[in-house]
Fold this sequence. Notes:
31% of the residues lie in helices and 26% in strands. It contains eight helices and 13 strands. It has helices spanning 7-13, 43-55, 67-72, 135-143, 154-164, 174-180, 208-223, 226-233, and strands at 18-24, 33-34, 40-41, 58-64, 81-85, 94-96, 101-109, 127-131, 148-152, 169-173, 188-189, 195-204, 241-242.
Amino acid sequence: MFSEPSPTVIQQLAPTGKLRAAINMSNFLLVTGHTPTGDPDGVSPDMARELARRLDVSCELLQYKTPGEVSDDATTGKWDVGNIGAEPKRAEKIDFSAAYAEIQATYLVPKGSSLKTIEQVDVKGIRIAVSARSAYDLWLERNIRNAELVRADGLDGSLDLFINDKLDALAGLRPRLIEDVIKVPGGRILEGQFTAVQQAMGCNRGNDEAATFLKTFVEEMKSSGFVAAAIEKHGVAGRLSVAPPA
């Protein structure tokens, strides 16, 4: 039996009478296409639509090019729920649920690279191409001690930077790197992961009842099989995993 939202939760999550959900369009595993009406489609939009159904309100999906732009609009009143990776820096403004899905992040290295393991990348003189303000960029910013992070705008931009400037490694989500390695003759994807990007749902801080309900909602979506079914439906099984219980 799913929990029922209180009038306060509905008011906090849908103050305009509809749920305005911010969707990160750059995550190709969570947004896999569009509906016939042009709305985003995929696991992330499905989560937003199901939340709106539970609140008994309509759902407006707001399309953002990057997760950083979603975070920028937190506290502005432009969206009610943000579907992006949970990161400590973002959590300063956004009250996140636990993750509902996870994606491995690792490195792609060029032909002839001496780098064999994740640990060998964080060495002085190594330059890492990364998509600016992605969840894994925020993780690298906190944890890389010796290597240099070289940022580009977006996933395509970081790949171009890696190739054109002959950098030592390209940081990215493993499923995307599997596609990118085709464009890097002789390139290799390193085994393991430096982090797992956790995809979550969040609302603006200060809406405590809404945040509590949102956290419960995400756990129910995992335990009920909703997330697993959405992953299967949208053809991303094996690349996107259901996150463990909180």
